[in-house]
């Protein structure tokens, strides 16, 4: 198998690192390119022993999957470069936020099968949540899902739902990191040092994640189990509710959703 990544940013590298760590492909089967960041591409080659090239004809030759991982605004230039060399067997996989399948096909001026996926950087630890949708002529769904499950869980959706999953899980890790960051800052205000606050918060998050992973119970049930009537946890939760936490989180997700829609129109 030959899988070519046009772009080597954080999301792309999370994906191919997950694939390599899970041994779904070998380094010899991965090809990287990025004319805007040659230093990073070559550093990844040195670290992972993957291939790299800046020759579009070589990159497109006998390629099974070509992953579009460039910035959406750079895609027209990428399309112009690869159009003369794309072979009919090559399946296009896009991780470009907001760029629709019809836009990809229109820019390429070709009928290659196209899939859009929305992963997140948890692919680095094989725990990405990957929304996926396909063009009508994409027939290798099972193969692609098998590849994707090397770095997380695949959820098949309609393309119209891509904006929602981009907000909920594509950007979700960053939202949660920000919450953890602010939690640690508040722990410091209780009197702990920065080092202590980071240690306490990091291990709290890891332990809570383990509880979720090992339990079939809902979040609300897990919360109720550790919330004693008129206890410290209940007092804190009541204060948290007064901050309109649900409304604030909804505003966060809606802003990401709306930006995804805007990108689709640009």
Automatic annotation (TrEMBL):
Where is it chiefly localized? Answer: cytoplasm
Q: What Enzyme Commission number(s) apply to this enzyme?
A: 1.5.1.2
User: What are this entry's molecular-function GO terms?
Assistant: pyrroline-5-carboxylate reductase activity
Instruction: Please tell me where NADP(+) binds in this chain.
Output: 34, 69-72
**Entry GO terms, CC:** cytoplasm
Which positions fall inside the Pyrroline-5-carboxylate reductase dimerisation domain?
A: 160-263
Q: Which InterPro entries match?
A: 6-PGluconate_DH-like_C_sf, NAD(P)-bd_dom_sf, P5C_Rdtase_cat_N, P5CR_dimer, Pyrroline-COOH_reductase
Q: What keyword terms does UniProt attach to this protein?
A: Amino-acid biosynthesis, Cytoplasm, NADP, Oxidoreductase, Proline biosynthesis
**Which pathway does it operate in?**
Amino-acid biosynthesis; L-proline biosynthesis; L-proline from L-glutamate 5-semialdehyde: step 1/1
Residues in Pyrroline-5-carboxylate reductase catalytic N-terminal domain copies? 2-98
Location within or outside the cell: Cytoplasm
Q: Which Gene3D superfamilies match?
A: NAD(P)-binding Rossmann-like Domain, ProC C-terminal domain-like
Set out the biological process GO terms recorded for this chain's protein. L-proline biosynthetic process
What is this enzyme's catalytic activity, as reactions?
L-proline + NAD(+) = (S)-1-pyrroline-5-carboxylate + NADH + 2 H(+); L-proline + NADP(+) = (S)-1-pyrroline-5-carboxylate + NADPH + 2 H(+)
Q: What does this protein do?
A: Catalyzes the reduction of 1-pyrroline-5-carboxylate (PCA) to L-proline.
Q: Which family does it belong to?
A: Belongs to the pyrroline-5-carboxylate reductase family.
**NCBIfam families in the record, alphabetically?**
proC
The name on file for this protein is Pyrroline-5-carboxylate reductase
Q: What's the source species for this entry?
A: Abyssicoccus albus
